[in-house]
Amino acid sequence: MAYNTQPTASHFVNGTYLEDTDGELIEVVYPATGAVIARVHAATPAVVAAAISSAKAAQKEWATKSGTERGRVLRRAADIMRERNHALSQLETYDTGKPMSETLYVDATSGADALEYFGGLAGALTGEHVNLGGDWGYTVREALGVCVGIGAWNYPTQIACWKGAPALACGNAMIFKPSETTPLCALKVAEILVEAGLPAGLYNVIQGAGAVGAALVTDPDVDKVSLTGSVPTGRKVYAAAADSMKHVTMELGGKSPLIIFDDADLENAVGGAILANFYSSGQVCSNGTRVFVQKGIKEAFLKRLAERLATAKIGDPMDETVNFGPMTSQHQREIVMSYIAKGKEEGARLVFGGAKIEGDGFFIQPTVFADVKDDMVIAREEIFGPVMAVLDFEDEEDVIARANDTEFGLSAGVFTSDLTRGHRVIGLMEAGSCFLNSYNDAPVEMPFGGSKMSGVGRENAKVAIEHYSQVKSVYVRMGDVESPF
Ligand code: NDP
């Protein structure tokens, strides 16, 4: 089975596909060839209103169902996603350009993991009994209402599920707006949820750019906004949501440190640095793009890194032996190329790659700069592409201070064979999602998210329940009421 890249219609609202050609045309481009593979329309105000009213109408009844019943739907959806993994992975590859060697293993599969995990948790959501010495109280975990999810373009299936699964498990409805660059995959998530038995209106997908996102964020009928995107967008969305006191989750960008001590296993450290910089052609928010390498291991590290990067297979992402694809858009490629130019201009030493790969697709070579200094632009700003900055360090205290000297706080990694030191250093990292002798693992069982400017709230794991529900407390008096008058 393979999906048509042209969807049945642009939006999925109230349990079915919906079209409104009055909305601005969005051409969907396959990043590996530059070919237009689908055309969709941005949501008009009428589509936005239809999505919100259908979500509002469906949510109340959904919240009255038992958690087990809600969870069953999510778990069925997880099974369907796994059965269709190949077709969904192909669509993800068309949407993003990421190679099939990645999408087959991390996109629909991690989406299915989220549906399965939160489907399993749904029946276990309870309040508490509180003994008040005669009187007593209890708490009830309630849904928030209508939740909005706004996604970035790097993981369109995963983001649609990471937001949708906990929202639905807690009894909410969701309206998801994918990035306009990658509008295709979330529609399939919506289709599959309905096939699994989700009542109409509970998971809607509408297309559009920032203006559609902004219309959702400011709507008084929306109770929560979960954004995956950049810090500048996060600032705007958080401020807009604050106006009507909406709950928020912000999964934003980063410039995360990866610290490699000279006692680290060299092959593992190089492998970790590759995963931290070149997976998904570097378009991963948690990437460890500031690689601090202790002086004793530096030359060996750079040599092995170059040898291993030379074996990357770059090319047609549909070829399952290819492991490095294009940037997701022409625009993003230009941004990344401008950072590469900046790195050269600032005097960083280019030790690998650095050029576009000619052709119709948006390919860039995996790129490594060495001798990078802390104040260089390539060491301070999120590039969101395959550009690694290698910085030298000598002692632990110094590297901790430098690693934390950033407004971001999404991730951090440490490679060392001294586990006491490993835990000590990780403990001092100002970051939400950390890795010890590993990098970029994101199992659904672990919380994911950032501190400082990288975000608010967490996705995944049990903690996500806190961000998609609220607690009502009820005081129960067992005797008479004593009042002063
Ligand atoms: P953007 O911040 O540009 O966009 C994110 C989403 O927000 C898009 O759907 C965008 O629409 C929408 N949007 C833009 N402006 C507004 C607005 N004013 N109101 C509401 N919605 C708006 O991010 P990118 O799509 O470029 O993704 C890359 C960024 O995402 C990087 O910074 C990366 O680090 C971060 N990211 C964070 C992750 C995390 O979990 N922490 C994971 C993945 C990525 P459109 O683009 O269609 O205009």
TrEMBL record:
Top-level division of the source organism's lineage: Bacteria
All residue ranges annotated as the Aldehyde dehydrogenase domain in the record: 20-474
An annotated Gene Ontology molecular function: metal ion binding
Active site residues according to the UniProt entry: E251
Keywords in alphabetical order: Metal-binding, NAD, Oxidation, Oxidoreductase, Potassium
Pfam families, A to Z: Aldedh
EC number in record: 1.2.1.8
Single GO biological process annotation from the record: glycine betaine biosynthetic process from choline
NCBIfam families, sorted: BADH (TIGR01804), PRK13252.1 (NF009725)
Membership in a protein family: Belongs to the aldehyde dehydrogenase family.
Name used for this protein in its record: Betaine-aldehyde dehydrogenase
Organism of derivation: Pelagimonas varians
Gene name per UniProt: betB_2
